Q: What sequence folds into this?
């Protein structure tokens, strides 16, 4: 599962710590930056007092990872949902200090989903209308889309 929130990006899969016996209750949360996992780590300390280490590896596609229980991760996601108070995700990320390639990545994801899935499933025609509008109006309108 890929999760984007205002503090970063997580990839979460069912995968136990390779040094421990297989456990279906354990999830592996992975991030490309240390900061992507620090909020999860802090939340778990508050949730159940456990300090879950963030491991670093330069031989995997995600440099940072941590192994958490499903209950710990559910608590984290519930906390994120309970505190969701913005009406535009990309704008909120920008307010939180996202700049450069991090912010650009969000726009590229939005653009790819729009291009490939469209709005309400109306893909090709809708995207072509959007590009035409984009080219004829203010180029900055592209970044103002929800």
A:
């Amino acid at each position: 599962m890929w999760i984007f929130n205002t503090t970063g990006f997580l990839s979460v899969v069912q995968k136990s710590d390779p040094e421990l016996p297989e456990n279906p209750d354990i999830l592996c949360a992975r991030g490309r930056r240390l900061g992507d996992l620090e909020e999860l780590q802090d939340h778990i300390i508050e949730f159940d007092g456990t300090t879950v280490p963030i491991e670093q590896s330069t031989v995997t596609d995600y440099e940072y990872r941590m192994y958490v229980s499903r209950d710990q991760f559910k608590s984290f996601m519930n906390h994120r949902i309970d505190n969701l108070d913005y009406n535009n995700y990309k704008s909120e990320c920008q307010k939180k200090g996202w700049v450069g390639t991090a912010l650009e990545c969000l726009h590229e994801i939005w653009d790819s989903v729009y291009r490939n899935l469209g709005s309400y499933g109306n893909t090709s025609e809708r995207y072509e209308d959007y590009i035409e509008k984009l080219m004829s109006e203010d180029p900055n309108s592209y970044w103002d889309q929800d």
User: Anything to note?
Assistant: The mean pLDDT is 86. The chain has two domains: 2-82, 89-138. Residues 91 and 144 are 8 Å apart (CA to CA). The beta strands are 2-5, 8-14, 26-31, 55-56, 64-69.
